[in-house]
Every structure is written in C-alpha cells, then in structure tokens.
Amino acid sequence: AADFRESVSMVLTERGYRVAYATLNKYATVGGGPVFESFGRRPLYKPADLLAWVASKTTAPRRHTSEQA
How many CB atoms sit inside 10 A of residue 12's CB? Predict the structure, then answer.
C-alpha cells in the first residue's frame, strides 16, 4: 500500500503539486478531489485524472497576488 501512495504523491509532486495521499482520501470521502475508481475500499487514481484535477484548481499566470485570476 505504501508504494501505491508514494506513486500517487509522486505524480503530483514531480509537477510541483504537493498533495498528501491522506488529503486525496479525504476528498474521496467528502468530495472535491479528482475522479477515481475503487478497488475494494481503496480509491485508485489515474495520472491523467490527477493532472486534470490540479489543472482545474490552478489559476492562469499572474504578475502579483491582487491581479484578477
């Protein structure tokens, strides 16, 4: 199980998005996270779905924090 968690986190971390696997599990329960399939009680994430999710949460480039997103 640890290898699976590490691989999910690695897909995101390699691209600059640090999200804990526990956070993704919480989103699988309460909503708001990436789409997933289930194997038993374990959520399974496809790399493309993880990247689509972070893209949906990421703003366009800005020059400063008060600039409109």
Answer: 21
